[in-house]
Amino acid sequence: MAELGLSYTLAELGDSEGARRASQQATVLAGPVSNREKARIRLRALQLGEGSEPARQRSNYLKEFDLILAEYPHDVELLMLRGQTDQQTTDMPGMVVGRASLTFYERALAVQPHYFAVHHYLTHAYENVGRTDLALKHAEEYVSLAPAVPHAHHMHGHILRRANRMQEAIAEFRRADELELAYFRSENIAPEYDWQYHHNLDLLGVSYQYAGQIRQAHTVLRRSFDLTSIEFSQELNESAWPMLLLLEGNTDQADSAAKALIGPRGSGSAGARTPDGEPDRDATGPRRRSH
Known about the structure:
Blueprint: H1 2-12, H2 16-28, H3 35-47, H4 54-71, H5 76-84, H6 99-111, H7 116-128, H8 132-145, H9 150-162, H10 166-187, H11 195-210, H12 214-226, H13 232-237, H14 240-247, H15 251-262
Helix pairs in contact: 1-2, 2-3, 3-4, 5-6, 6-7, 7-8, 8-9, 9-10, 9-11, 10-11, 11-12, 14-15
């Protein structure tokens, strides 16, 4: 089951081959586990299967999933996974789901109404279908049940922005930032490996900008810009820094920053980071990977 979890984690890091290998290893080791766990392992193998036409592969995956769910109709983890199949990608689970997912998430909520993970996914789903009122309700429940989780505060801030409660959103993004930095320090993890950290900084910076707190926006967006990017989506978000410079009339600085986004940057203080988000002065290597 650890190999199964590793498969999902590697997929979120963009390592598709690693995710497939971990899934295959889970299948190899599946002999002594329960039938329910075997079903989970089989589903992941079908989801990542090779050799078949994508539409047929997805169809087979969903058919098998519904058969398994009929056998375990009150399994909350299965219900949440089934809700995630509304999206076409196997990474970023639960983030881009919509209306089709709500049936399964609401069923999971009926089984475990105080499980923070269910409220997390309901927050995403209701936000994606434009129901800010319900998204806010579940975001509030999520953060109350998981106050030590940075993403819980981030999601609450996410919805507060949509509700035009900007100062409250800023407070939640700041709390997420504090929790993440503490986590990086305690675990000695480089910030660039957590996409959430990058995304949270971006939203904190643009929220400061929206609220007219430009000095704070400068500090945060520059922090985000200087972080090493390991995913293309992170680089797209970093455009907020040159855009702010351009809006302020700092054309030369904006031009320099925009050019830096086009390709890999050189080594130095804008490269690797320490766990507190500061430049690693002893590190060398590329600022970002090529795409």
